[in-house]
Amino acid sequence: MRRRFFAVLWVCLIFAVFPFTAYSGEELFQYSTIDALLAGVYDGQLKCGELKKKGNLGLGTFNALDGEMVVLDGQVYQVKVDGKVSLAPDSGKIPFAAVTSFTPEEFLPVKKAANLTELTKIMDQGLPTKNIFYALKIEGRFPKVVARSVPRQTRPYPPLAKAVEKQAVFTFTDVEGTILGFRCPVFVKGVNVPGYHLHFLTKDRKGGGHVLDCVVENLTVQVDPIHKFNLVLPEDREFYRLDLDKDKSSDLKKVEK
Questions:
Q1: What is the bridge-based pairing of β-strands 27-31 and 228-232?
Q2: Does 12 map to a domain?
Q3: What is the pLDDT of residues 97-119, one digit of tens each?
Q4: φ, ψ dihedrals at 139, nearest 5°
Q5: How many helices (H) and strands (E) does the chain have?
Q6: CA-CA distance, 222 to 123, in Å (whole number)?
Q7: Cα dist from 42 to 6, 26, 69, 86, 218, whole Å
Q8: Taking Cα atoms as reference points, which of 8, 235, 226, 233 lies closest to residue 102?
Q9: What pLDDT is stored for residue 6 in this prediction?
Q10: Is the pLDDT at 15 greater than 70, yes or no?
Q11: What is the DSSP string of 98-145?
Q12: CB count, 10 Å around CB of 155?
C-alpha cells in the first residue's frame, strides 16, 4: 500500500511539473516536403485560395521560389526579394507551405532573448514535450529582427542551398510586428524542418521574411499544441521522379542560416 501511495504521488508530481495540455483538435496542414523544396521542386499545384481554407497562420513560399510566404489572420502575404509585401492572389500557386487554425492554449513570457538561439532555448524550456507540433506567435515591438527573402528562380531550377546564396537580408530595428511559425519534432526530418521555422511580418504589412535572427524583450509567445498532421503530396511528374534518398540535413542548415 505504501509503495502504491508513493507511485501515485510520483505521477502527480510529474504532471504538476510538466502540465501537459489536453488534446487539441487543431491539425498542421502541409503541402509537399521540405526535402523536395531543398532539391529544387519550386512549382506546385496548390492555390493560395485553397491554402487559406486550411488555416489562418503559417508559412511557405510561392511557385518559382518567388519570395517568402507569411500567413497571418487568414491572409497570405508575399515578401519579395526587394522587400515589398503584397497580398498573394487566391490563384497564386504554392510548392511548399504549412498552416494551421491557430488558437493559443499556452503562453510563455520572454523577459529577454538576445538572439534567436536564446529565444528557441527559452521556448524549449517552457514546452511540455518535444514530440508534438507547435504553432507559435509573438506579437509586439521587437528591438531587432533580421529576415530574408529569396529571388524568383528560372528553369532549370537550382537546389535551394544555391538559390539562397542570392538572398536579400533585411534588418528591422525597434519594429512592431509578428513572428510566427512552427516547432516540429525531430522525427519529421525530410518532411518538415525539425525544430523551429519562423517568419516575420511588420505591423504595417510593409516588410518581413524568413527569420534569421531576432531580439525579444518583455513579450509573450502564444503557443498552440498540435497533435494531428495532414500531409498532401504533389501529383506531378517532377515530384514523382525526384530522388529523395539522400540526407539533406546539411543543405537545410545552410538554408536556415
A1: parallel
A2: no
A3: 999 999 999 999 999 999 999 99
A4: -115, 145
A5: 7, 14
A6: 10
A7: 57, 28, 13, 20, 38
A8: 226
A9: 40
A10: no
A11: EEE-----EEEEEEEESSHHHHHHHHHHHSS-SSSEEEEEEEEEEEEE
A12: 9
Identify whether the C-beta of residue 210 lies closer than 8 Å to the C-beta of residue 148.
yes
Quickly state the pLDDT bin for 257 (edges 50, 70, 90).
Answer: confident
Torsion of CA 80, 149, 43, 90, to 10 degrees: -40
pTM of the model: 0.91
Q: Nine-digit cell at 76? A: 497570405
Structural domain range at position 72: 21-256
Taking the C-alpha atoms of 171, 51, 89 and 36 in order, what is their torsion angle to the nearest 10 degrees?
60
The number of folded domains in the chain is: 1
Closest CA relative to residue 127, chosen from 19, 216, 13, 11: 19
| 214: CATH | 3.30.1330.80
Is 177 part of any domain? yes
pLDDT digits (tens, 9 = 90+) for 70-91: 999 999 999 999 999 999 999 9
pLDDT band at 22 (very low <50, low <70, confident <90, very high): low
Contact 137, 198 (CB under 8 A): no
- Measured distance CA(21)–CA(228) in Å, rounded: 14
Is there a domain that residue 15 lies in?
no
- List all residues 6 or more positions away from 175 whose beta carbon is below 8 Å from its beta carbon: 141, 142, 144, 145, 202, 203, 207
230 within domain boundaries: yes
